[in-house]
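User: C-alpha cells for this one?
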Amino acid sequence: MFGLDTSYTVLLLICLLAAAAFEFINGFHDTANAVATVIYTHSLKPTTAVIWSGLWNFIGVNVGGIAVAMGIVNLLPMEALIDQNLMHNISMIASLIATAIIWNLATWYIGIPCSSSHTLLGSIFGVGLAFMLLPGSHTIALNWQKVFDVILSLLISPVFGFGFAFLLMFILRKVVKNKIIFKEPPAKKAPPRWIRGILILTCTSVSYAHGSNDGQKGVGLIMLILIGFAPSFFAIDRSKKASDLLSETKQIEWTIKKMDTNFLSSENRKNHQVVLQDLQLIKTEINGVTSFSNLDKSVNFKIRKAILSVSKKSESIVKNLGESPKSRIKPAVLAVLTSNLEKFRANTEYSPRWVILLVSISLGFGTMIGWKRIVVTIGEKIGKTHLTYAQGASAELVAASTIGVSTYLGLPVSTTHVLSSGIAGSMVAGGGRQNLRMGTVKNILMAWLITLPVTILLSGLMFFILRMIFK
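Assistant:
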C-alpha cells in the first residue's frame, strides 16, 4: 500500500484505525454538548436526539470544507514528518494519537466536558516542541503564527460563549412576553411545538457546526499520518494535472516579476527573491511531466515545500504592496495574484475523499454512543436549577454561531467549552452567580487550563522515549 512494505502497511493501518478511534471518542465525548438541551427539555427522546445529532455531524464533516484540517496539518514543520527513518515519523504520529486518546478517555470517564480540540492540539504542540529540541533540529520551528492564532481562538471562544449567551438571555427577558420559555420544563412532558422546533433547530445547528469544525481536526490528523508514512503519495494532490500546476506557477511568476521591489520592505525584497527561486524550482521539476506519479519520491515533497514557501511569502509581499500608497500596483492585479495563489495552494491543501468519509462515519457513530456522562454534567451540574427552554436555546445558538464563524476562518475551537460556557452564561443571566454549581464550573475550568500543558508534556515525553528506542 502506497509503496510501503508489509510491516509498515500494517503500522499505517493501525495508525489510521487509531485516528478513527479518536474521532469516534470525540463523537461520544462532544455530542452531549449538542443533545443535552433537547434531552433535558424533553424536546427529543435520548435515542432520537443522538441519532439525529450523529446524522448532522456526518453531514457537517462532508460539506464543511477543509480549512481547519489544513490549519492542523500546517502546525507542524513538514521536516518533522519526512525523516529518512520512517520509525521516527511513526514515533511522532503514535505519540500524538496515543496522548489524544488517553486524555479524551480519562476526562470522559470522570464526566468532565474536556475539549477534544485542546487535547489534539496540545498533542501536536508537544511532539513539535520535542522535535525542535532534538540534535540538529534547532533551526526548524513550529508555525508560531498559526500556533498563536489557534491558542488565541481556544482561549477566547469560551469567553464569547459566556458573554453572548448572557446578553441573549438578558435581551430575551426584556422583549419576550411569553414567560413559559423561562420556566423549568414539566417532567416528561414535551414543550409547545414552537419551542420544540427552536430547540431541535439549535441542536441541529450545533451538531452540524461540530462536524464541520471538530471533524476537520480528524481529517487533519489523518493527513499528518499519511504524509508521515508516504510523503511521495500525499505531499501534493496527485489527482491534479502537473500541467495545471506548471501553468499556475508561470502565472504567479509573471505577476511577481512585474512588481516594483522599490516599494517593498527589506524583508519582502528577500521574500521576492526566494519566491522567484522557488517558482523556478517547481518549473524545473515538473517541466515536461505529465503526471505527478512519474516524479521521483523526494521531488513531491520538494514541490510541496516550494508551494508553501511561495504562498506564505507572496502573501506577505501582497500585503506590503497593498499598504503602500506609492506602489501604483493595481488592485485588480493583486486580486488576480491572490486568486492564483489560492489555486496554487490547493495542490497541497487537500484531502482524499475516503479520508473525509472515514472521519465522518467515525464521528457519526461515536455520536450515538457514550453520551450520557457528559449530558448529565451539562444538564444538571453546571447550574443549580433545571435547564430552561430559553437557556438551552441561547447557549446552543451562541455555540453554533461561534463555531461556524471559526470554521469559516479556518480556526479550531472547542465545542465543549463554547457550549458549557454558554450554559453558564445563561444560568448567571437567570439567577446570578449563585445559580452556578461552582464545583462543576471549577472542574470544567481546571480541565480547560490543564489540558494543553498536560498533553504537551505527555506527547513530548512519549515522543522522546520512542525516538530513543528507534534510533
